[in-house]
Amino acid sequence: MAPSSKANKKAAGDVAAWMFNVVTSVGIIIVNKALMANYGFFFATTLTGMHFVTTTLMTIVLRWLGIIQASHLPLLDLLKFVLCANFSIVGMNISLMWNSVGFYQIAKLSMIPVSCLLEVSFDKIRYSRDTKLSIVVVLLGVAVCTVTDVSVNTKGFIAAFVAVWSTALQQYYVHYLQRKYSLSSFNLLGHTAPVQAGSLLLLGPLVDYWLTNKRIDHFDFTFSSSAFIILSCTIAIGTNLSQFICIGRFTAVSFQVIGHMKTILVLVLGFLFFGKEGLNIQVVVGMLIAVCGMIWYGNASSKPGGKERRSHSIKHGSDSSQADDKV
């Protein structure tokens, strides 16, 4: 295959992966908000466990069809990943509950510099000046869009700290494990989803009761609420898979930077659905700054020296984007 044709194919795959992630991520946010606002289903951790149950069923079907091939992931690496992922889920739920919206958004923004630190420390990645500045511009734009009141308390800060670091580590591990063990996104999900499903379904009701003082066994599962739960679980299959595909094809940092496009899209959809209340000059300016930063980041990181590895810390496996192309 000619180099230009191969590059075009990869670019098309990259765009498709991002679109898949954006559509499923925004879709699940809308469905979950409706589920909580209209039916009072506030059991977020247990719901995430349900999401991984349906994702596990998807991987079982794909393995039966022969799409997922046999692969190996050491137990210790699997447990490390699941521990980080579960702390991320619970930490984010607690952070949202204990912190103001403004501080919660600042904590989410801090995941980008934390992810950069992990890549610099573990993968010996070196960023050019333009790449660093473009990340700052993205952070500034999203902050202008989303950060309003900011109040901090001790327990909220601890929850945010745990959530940010565990999320950054979980996303780093996705890229790391795919490269080290030559795992496709489907293969990695096949290993991790069952363990996450079991652990979250076991701990979820206890965590949700601690956070909401409500018991899930007392919830009124009507036909409508059950339909929304099933819809949420169905969309979650795509959300979980697309996250693994995107981080595998790119990096955790790129996933975070361009992923803020979802934040902007949610704001725009809020304006379309709820009118001018969700949009003002501050939000518009923030959107423009963030989009400019994302375009700058894409150009800067793709240039020679924009983002390069100083030494090869991972000696096994192949590039995960190649593994995805095989699936």
UniProtKB/TrEMBL annotation:
Pfam families linked to this entry: TPT
Membrane topology category: Multi-pass membrane protein
InterPro entries reported in the protein's UniProt record: Sugar_P_trans_dom, TPT_transporter
Sugar phosphate transporter domain boundaries: 23-297
Predominant subcellular localization, coarse grouping: membrane
Region ranges (Disordered): 302-327
GO molecular function, one term: antiporter activity
One GO biological process term: transmembrane transport
Subcellular location: Membrane
Membrane-crossing residue ranges in chain numbering: 12-35, 41-66, 78-96, 133-150, 156-174, 186-207, 227-245, 257-275, 281-300
Any Gene Ontology CC annotation: membrane
Keyword annotations: Membrane, Transmembrane, Transmembrane helix
PANTHER family, A to Z: SOLUTE CARRIER FAMILY 35
This protein's name: Sugar phosphate transporter domain-containing protein
Lineage, top ranks: Eukaryota, Viridiplantae, Streptophyta, Embryophyta, Tracheophyta
